[in-house]
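Sanity check

After download, print the first record. It should look like this:
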Amino acid sequence: MTNDGPQFAPEGWEQQSFQPDRTSEMTGDYLLPPMPPPPPPNNSRTPLIIAIVAVIVLLAVAGAGWIVWSRISGVEGSPTAGSLASDMPTLSPTSGARPVDLPADAVQCEAVTGPQGEFTRSARGNEATSCPFAEEARIAYARSGAASESSRTVTVYSPVTKKLYDMSCRQTAPGPLVTCTGGNDAVVYLY
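Expected structure tokens:
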């Protein structure tokens, strides 16, 4: 017998409605993985600070490089030995140094640097010699070693002609007085 009509529970029974189990659908492959939390808002200033520090460092390196380059290449407006000479006091032999008798034709030159080895001053011996050249000879000879009665050749740069010259130098008098000759008839006295 088929009963197509509504079914009623026998007396004393409560009618229950059928609810399908949907937990398998919720926990199965039907669910998507949970969404990650959204990223925090980007109000960090770290990239800006890094960029500013990088620019400052680059400017400092470039400035230092320009100063070194300008001193090496002699660019206008950069300090050179000649321009610094006016700021430096004139040096004379220390009180412990023995006095030196310069030849009558000698013209004392202003020192553009401090003492070089045992030599504090230079003099030019004739009109063919400039004081800047005499000072360069003093520096070159002092760098080559102590004064000696043996002749020693040093190469000297001329700030006037912008050329290099070989000078033969030796101690010619006690005290120490060194005489250098060479180049274009140049004569230099170092003391």
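If your output differs, re-run the checksum step. Summary of this record's structure: The radius of gyration is 47 Å.
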